[in-house]
Amino acid sequence: DALPISSHKEAYGAEALFRLFSSFGQSKTYFSHFDLSQGSADLKRHGAKVLGALGEAASHLDNLDQALSKLSDLHAYNLRVDPANFQLLSHSIQVTLAAHFPADFTPEAQSAWDKFISAVSGVLTSKYR
Amino acid sequence: RSSDLKHPAPKAKMVHWTAEEKAAIHSVWKQVDVEKDGQETLSRVLITYPWTQRYFSSFGDLSNAAAICNNPKVKAHGKKVLAALGGAAQHLDNIKSTLAHLSELHADTLHVDPENFKLLGQCLVIVLARKLGAAFTPEVHGAWEKFVAVSCAALSKHYN
Question: Testing the interface with B: which of A20, A36, A95, A111 to mutate, by most B Cβ within 10 A?
Answer without folding.
Answer: A95
